[in-house]
Design brief:
Distance between the termini: 78 Å
Strand content: under 5%
Helix content: over 70%
Radius of gyration: 30 Å
Largest sheet: none
Shape: flat
Length: 139
């Protein structure tokens, strides 16, 4: 009897787990993580291979250093830290631009929907008269 109950419980657990895995939200999250990882590699390459050399070449040449990671004083690798700060700022700026563009698209959609759902002039006039009547009654 106990064996049968444990099989039923295990089967219910596996079915619940399968339902959880197959939900759209979990799959969407998995896709987002994979795409985010790939995007992170692109941003890292952009920063390490393009932006950092452009911004720091004069400083590197003045310090007679060929690699940013070699910038250090008394064992303190401030070059690596500087690269990390630049990396963070660029990633934050890219995310800011993405969010800002999404918000602009949403605002545009809302404006378009509002433009489509304009009440006719007679309906607007009726609403204005009703509001005026409410104000007059409250006095």
């Amino acid at each position: 009897m106990a064996l049968q109950n444990s099989r039923r419980a295990a089967g219910g657990f596996m079915k619940d787990f399968q339902d959880f895995i197959m939900k759209g939200n979990v799959i969407d999250l998995a896709v987002a993580v994979v795409i985010g990882g790939a995007f992170g590699k692109i941003v890292t390459s952009l920063i390490e291979d393009i932006i950092t050399p452009l911004l720091l070449n004069p400083a590197l040449q003045a310090a007679n250093v060929k690699d940013l990671a070699l910038l250090q004083i008394n064992g303190i690798k401030y070059g690596v830290f500087l690269a990390s700060v630049i990396n963070f700022l660029v990633i934050a700026f890219v995310i800011f631009l993405l969010i800002r563009s999404f918000e602009a698209m949403k605002r545009k959609e809302v404006r378009e929907e509002a433009a489509e759902v304009k009440p006719d002039p007679q309906e607007r006039l009726t609403l204005a008269v009703e509001r005026l009547a409410e104000v007059m009654e409250s006095k």
